[in-house]
Design a protein that fits this description.
It is built from eight helices and six strands, in the order H-H-H-H-H-E-H-H-E-E-E-H-E-E. By secondary structure, the protein is of the alpha/beta class. Strands 2-3-4-6-5 form a five-stranded mixed beta barrel. The longest helix is centred in the first third of the chain and has 16 residues, at about 20-35. The chain is globular and about 40 Å long.
């Protein structure tokens, strides 16, 4: 598979160390102490209230930090989530253990407009609360699909170890989030999950480095791929909002339907 590199674009936050809150916090305290040692009243004020200042800095800088540290005693690539963990880490298979055949769809718009019900319909029919959401796939999620699309953003190092991949059709601005899952901790289908992670990592430069970790990386040009996987309704999220919703500001999905987990990512020359 041809490798398409994603050029890392450093923000001003990252250039000055703000991507690491602990590093930036340390620099902040050094600055505060230096000012406090002067004879100016402002220095005394800053010293007295530096703990408040530090909390505000930490909260501000955390938005550009990578994945939240996983506290489970598992491998570095193992899935570390909890919400609807079973469908996120299992492919849709028949009773004999073979993959349910992939349905080829015409792209993102065709998948969302023809095969899957609307987000509103899914929210009216099911309860998607943290503790009350369906543990298994619901009937609407019983599809394995194959589609050709364009990758416009990839975000590694999610706190659950998934890769967020934002795709779109060639000539449309309807976006969808597809996720390459962390490795299943029960080991079922492990080889397929490892392969899928290797495939998405091949389109990144330094896939797990601090320069790309925890933020969306934009390719120089959209990457034409064929994606296969099982569909999933991520009712724990909202769609389209600028804060807390999947996708970068320039490519926000208007749905929480996903292909998740991704079974394969094949670059199309």
């Amino acid at each position: 598979m041809k490798s398409t590199r994603i050029r890392v674009r450093h923000t001003d936050r990252q250039r000055h160390g703000m991507a690491n809150p602990h590093c930036f916090l340390q620099k902040t305290f050094v600055f505060v102490n230096r000012v406090a040692n002067t004879e100016r009243p402002m220095g005394v004020w800053m010293y007295r209230y530096s703990w408040i200042f530090a909390i505000l800095v930490l909260a501000n800088s955390s938005s550009s930090v990578g994945a939240t540290q996983c506290t489970k005693d598992i491998g570095p690539d193992d899935f570390c989530g909890s919400y609807r963990a079973d469908p996120k880490t299992t492919y849709l298979k028949a009773s004999d253990g073979t993959m349910v055949p992939f349905e080829h769809v015409g792209g993102v718009s065709d998948l969302l407009g023809r095969l899957l019900p609307s987000d509103d319909a899914m929210r009216e029919k099911y309860d998607w609360g943290i503790s009350s959401a369906p543990g298994d796939r619901v009937p609407e999620e019983l599809h394995n699909v194959q589609l050709d699309a364009y990758i416009v953003a990839v975000k590694p190092c999610e706190d659950d170890r998934d890769y967020h991949v934002i795709i779109k059709d060639e000539n449309a601005d309807e976006y969808m989030n597809v996720e390459v899952s962390g490795l299943p901790t029960n080991g079922v289908g492990l080889a397929d999950f490892k392969r899928a992670r290797g495939e998405i990592e091949s389109v990144l430069t330094d896939a797990n480095s601090s320069s790309t970790c925890g933020r969306y990386n934009k390719p120089d040009q959209p990457i034409h791929v064929r994606i296969e996987g099982s569909v999933y309704f991520d009712g724990d999220h909202r769609a389209g909002c600028q804060s807390g919703c999947p996708g970068p500001s320039y490519a926000k999905p208007s749905t929480v339907w996903e292909i998740h987990p991704v079974y394969s990512v094949t670059e199309i020359p």
